Amino acid sequence: MMDAVNLLELEQLARGVMDPAVFAYVAGGAGDERTMVDNRAAFARRRIEPRVLRGLGAVDLTADVLGGRLAMPVLVAPMAHQGLVHPQGDLGPARAAAAAGAGYCLSCLANHGLEEVAAAGAGGVLWAQLYPFRDEGQTREHIARAVAAGYGALVVTVDVQAYGLRERDIRAAAALDMGALTLPCVPLAAGRTEPIPAAEAGEHMKFDLSWDDVGAIVAAAPVPVVLKGIIAAGDARLAAECGAAGVVVSNHGGRQLDGVTASLDALPAVAEAAGDALEVYLDGGVRRGTDVLLALALGARACLVGRPISYANALGGAEGVAAALGMLRAEIENALLLAGCGSAAEVGPSIVGSAIV
Amino acid sequence: MMDAVNLLELEQLARGVMDPAVFAYVAGGAGDERTMVDNRAAFARRRIEPRVLRGLGAVDLTADVLGGRLAMPVLVAPMAHQGLVHPQGDLGPARAAAAAGAGYCLSCLANHGLEEVAAAGAGGVLWAQLYPFRDEGQTREHIARAVAAGYGALVVTVDVQAYGLRERDIRAAAALDMGALTLPCVPLAAGRTEPIPAAEAGEHMKFDLSWDDVGAIVAAAPVPVVLKGIIAAGDARLAAECGAAGVVVSNHGGRQLDGVTASLDALPAVAEAAGDALEVYLDGGVRRGTDVLLALALGARACLVGRPISYANALGGAEGVAAALGMLRAEIENALLLAGCGSAAEVGPSIVGSAIV
Amino acid sequence: MMDAVNLLELEQLARGVMDPAVFAYVAGGAGDERTMVDNRAAFARRRIEPRVLRGLGAVDLTADVLGGRLAMPVLVAPMAHQGLVHPQGDLGPARAAAAAGAGYCLSCLANHGLEEVAAAGAGGVLWAQLYPFRDEGQTREHIARAVAAGYGALVVTVDVQAYGLRERDIRAAAALDMGALTLPCVPLAAGRTEPIPAAEAGEHMKFDLSWDDVGAIVAAAPVPVVLKGIIAAGDARLAAECGAAGVVVSNHGGRQLDGVTASLDALPAVAEAAGDALEVYLDGGVRRGTDVLLALALGARACLVGRPISYANALGGAEGVAAALGMLRAEIENALLLAGCGSAAEVGPSIVGSAIV
Amino acid sequence: MMDAVNLLELEQLARGVMDPAVFAYVAGGAGDERTMVDNRAAFARRRIEPRVLRGLGAVDLTADVLGGRLAMPVLVAPMAHQGLVHPQGDLGPARAAAAAGAGYCLSCLANHGLEEVAAAGAGGVLWAQLYPFRDEGQTREHIARAVAAGYGALVVTVDVQAYGLRERDIRAAAALDMGALTLPCVPLAAGRTEPIPAAEAGEHMKFDLSWDDVGAIVAAAPVPVVLKGIIAAGDARLAAECGAAGVVVSNHGGRQLDGVTASLDALPAVAEAAGDALEVYLDGGVRRGTDVLLALALGARACLVGRPISYANALGGAEGVAAALGMLRAEIENALLLAGCGSAAEVGPSIVGSAIV
Q1: Of B21, C271, D282, D308, which cross-links D300 as Cys (Cβ 3.0–4.6 Å)?
Q2: ipTM reported for the complex, 2 dp
């Protein structure tokens, strides 16, 4: 862990300590992994046009998100089955995120319960991700538990109409052992007392989700609802119409449909469609402070970071994640200073030069 | 065969079991193979813009083609000399295609007869490819036999004014042994009783084909005629004028003139020129479910798939082809679901983002 | 030689038989060799849009050039010091070109005399390249000798204001031994009787050439004058004004100024500026029949081919060059047939699709 | 040194003789070094459109800069800590630059004093770079000393609001030993007599620099002030408003914020904004004579060259730098001749073809 100079290096370091099948599960994307790669390439296609002599001694990295305030414009993305990665699962990362002032978005398919993770991440901005269940009662119970535990927003993932075809997973399938991991965030159906094995997640998820389903969740939820997995500007407009409070521009880290537009490339049109009606977040390929700078410039309020946190968790649990968030914070701060931006909130499109293909 | 996770992997697996000269014949393209490579790259240059929350539980993959109905929007492309690849030649692939609900387009230069292959592919959508012969009587006889055997359309290949200069073939020429293979689909000239050796195909083909020749075939054929090998929109207009029912946008898999526009790149203009007058199909580089999705979006009714079927045939005959078509079907289904498209027929240009070069 | 399937392969084959310093001299370009590489890449950036069903049984490859007729739209480019490559220097290539119906443009810095090469290439289209000399008398004498020997056009090279900085040459300088080679095409100054050693070429060339100098040559020459080394359309207009009969779009094969526009990229604007006032030729990177097809389509009347002829000469003298020209002719013929063009003269811009970068 | 044929080769040669940590410090850039690489790539994306027959026997390479005249349109860029590279630090390079007629811009963080370097570079165009100090008195003293020593312009570096995150440095940090190097150009605070150790540079620099600070320097300085580190055209306008005499388009050689636009790409808009109000210079990636040609064509009056001079200094001190400047001068001369430009001053945008990406 301590040998990494940036978040990108965590992948190779983590590969050295993780079970190969678990690494395949975390690192892989769908199909030829073109979208996964393109998520990164989209940042490299953009150019920053910095301004100088702004008299900046320090920069303000805070970001106001859905009623909470982040000390840095970053949230940990929801990632299922962190128990595969570290025995403490989400507990360490949630604690590290709270300490760093980053948000934490807990996966609905976590291996620790909503309440337990909320306790670990106490003091931080906490969001609860939700895959709506086939049984609406389970969905309602999940929302109620999340709100009771202090999660400030619900993040409904909308890009899993089916599992993506992740070929590293298919090849490693026999080797991936979920063992005794369970899904304590998934409410038990009436009469069931045994915790749900992690391998059975798909049996409970509702794949044929519709705008009506999401509308019902928005109506029922006492906290803001964010839709994660929006690429088309038209879907951002529908999200606003159905009462969502925000959207996460995301292609699920390239893990669902290969060939989908890179998140950063999709961001400007979504941000324009969102206008003031929705808060817009970016997920996918964020590894550098300059990535965050570009995302802010193109309309995001903050970024979600996924795989690097998983790798940091594998390498060092809470301490590892703290180090990763520390490196990222330092890079963001440096990027704002050198781009001539006094605060995350003021970063605008003027600092983005034309794309170089 | 069973080790392949996708159609792309079939090539390397097949290379391991095929005679090198036969592999060179199947795998190679003309010249520097730029067009062959670009056929694949053209898919990679496009981006998919998926829609979410469409309430999709399943998707309808059927495609209506020239009076028949496919269970999946795929036809096996005509490929000469499958007898080089598997002792049963086209018999296994035709059987597998019929079982999968994919169409089967039998090469005029097959090593089994029209009737025999029709029997193997009974119940499926069958098309008969035709290289018009120097002897018009042979052409008429081929058409009559094809129609009598139940082929629902004639596919006239129009891009072989000469053989392409395939350098892998030239290098392997001495090693390629057609042995006792014959061309039982080629009608015998009057008085001839010996079946035509496969190596003599070119002696019977009419290379200086004209629109008049094709017009005569259309006038004579009791089934719809599809022209395969159209790249220019202007030729699609001429195809409609001469009474063709459809066109296959194709550069012969990069096997004829190197440097020709990739099939997918040529598709939109051809589809626009075709309007409602012609059914449009795409051939060239299709390996992935997302490739089919993009082709449908840009105007194709279905895709032709060639080399991967040859490789699957080499690896496992009917069973191999069934597995290949099964993988492709699963990918198409997944692609439609994740792009938010309820059916193959409804896939339109709105799901295509801008090209990234 | 006999192992080559195309002109591109000649380079590696020739490297195996040539003196390394001579190979460096022939193969190298200026600076980082970006323009040399880009000359080839420019062809790869273009796409061909073929037409079908034109009823073509054969194609007419002839090209009318400055009062002569080529059997194929190709001329051998002027290349200095062929005596380094083969003991017979230009004699074999000139003979092979005449036999193939390709033109032959003899370098002013050849190691055989104008008359001797004209005899070898008798019956073919012969042009004489000229680096105007510091001594105008020598220039006049060169022209007179060329005309007397039957050369039908003068090709004045205009892009050598200084030698290009060819780094392979600089590195190999000590190893390159011009030995006893002389320059018999360079007229001797008054009173001099010793033939000029090849190494002293630069001492006689006039580097500070102007439009006035060229105008004087045009006025004095009894044959048409072609300017070789034009990239800017503005210079094509000046060429027409000064009475030139044609221009060769050329960057000297990337041997002069690195970073210059690729020849093919420069061609369309030069051809437009030339209109009917000038014949336009293309030089640089031509290796394939499809390259010639694209050059004709974008405005060239014929192409000059350089290095591959040098390699063929090294590999097999006249026989080697005959084989190279034979391969090229076969490719051009195939390209025209498959693009649906009945003759070299009718190839036009409509067969060129858009550039793919 | 003597083995290098061009400036690019100096890097590998120097790597062989330099301490690895010092090489990392000189060669490295910020982050993923994308901007450092792109500075070079930006030249490769441009194409030169040369003109011919201009009657050029020689070219005039002189450039008038802020009241001085360079014999070639090149200045040595300010580079800190040359004492790490060669025991004589800037003395050798300054002497070589003066001899070659290139300008010399002495770093404010040099390891030899302003006066000592001025003596070494006597007769040449000398500029003094300045990182304004936290203590305004030190800034005033630095300016006074520079002017007294004969420096003709002050170059205020404006793109160091913080140190860039140079990862090669971070990895090599423990190994980089500044030893006894000091910063004799940094004036001593009142009462201090010990020279300032090189490692303490950052303690004296004012990072939160504003336009007001620069305005005050301009007002106080008896020589022209040039701002180095301008990328945005808007900042060029502000530079003119605050009284600067010139700007250096620069991203600090890719050493500050990774992802910033390449210098050459930023140049045209800055040059347009500058109009006649400012002299414009280009810094970043200049290694070739054609690079200088392109920079002149796109609006620069001269180029700054950094790392290659450092490498040449490491390889051979004054002699090494003389050789490097000699190679560069020869390339510039060749480039102008072959582009048809009679003088550096007349190079204009007409010789630049369109960018090829």
Answers
A1: D282
A2: 0.97
